[in-house]
Amino acid sequence: MAFEWPVRIYWEDTDAGGIVFYANYLKFFERARTEWLRAQGFGQHNMREQTGGMFVVTGAELRYQRPARLDDELIVTAAVSEMGKASLTIEQKALLKPSQHHLPATLLCEGSIRIGWVDAATMRPSRIPGILLEQLSS
Questions:
Q1: What is d(CA 132, CA 15) in angstroms, rounded to the nearest whole number?
Q2: DSSP sequence for 97-134
Q3: String of b and e for 1-25 (b: at least 16 CB within 10 Å)?
Q4: Which of 40, 88, 126, 128 has the fewest beta carbons under 10 Å from its own?
Q5: End-to-end CA distance of the chain
């Protein structure tokens, strides 16, 4: 089951054409991943303080389907699709929240984001701490 995070579209999110600027979906995905980790009990700052490590994005592939516009309400999801010893692949979607509860959400953008674990001091790849892997795999 995917983690869900609500996002509202503001003026600052849109471009001259009145639609969400394409790079902003990366911001929305970043926020959802951060909140997903926080919901698992792993705040970014605390993870770094307690383990000396942190996640960094090592790859991103996005596919755009439909535009979001000013004042739209989105649901941004995050779900692990691959788990390695030093990296995770997170599948993410930005969905237009339906105006009525019985309607399905409309897919706007989907992406596959790879995050790797690094030693925060050296920025060198490292193994994801076992306790973190255990929690994220459950």
A1: 38
A2: PPSSTTSPPEEEEEEEEEEEEEETTT--B-PPPHHHHH
A3: eebbbebebeeebbeeeebbeeebb
A4: 40
A5: 11
Gap between the Cα atoms of 116 and 125, Å rounded:
7
The residue to which tokens 């929690």 are assigned: 135
Q: Is 137 strand, coil or helix?
A: helix
Minimal CA–CA distance to 32: which of 69, 2, 1? 2
Measured distance CA(78)–CA(76) in Å, rounded: 7
Model pTM above 0.90: yes
Catalytic residues: 15
Residue 63's pLDDT is 98
80-138 pLDDT tens trace: 999 999 999 999 999 999 887 778 899 999 999 999 999 999 999 999 999 889 888 87
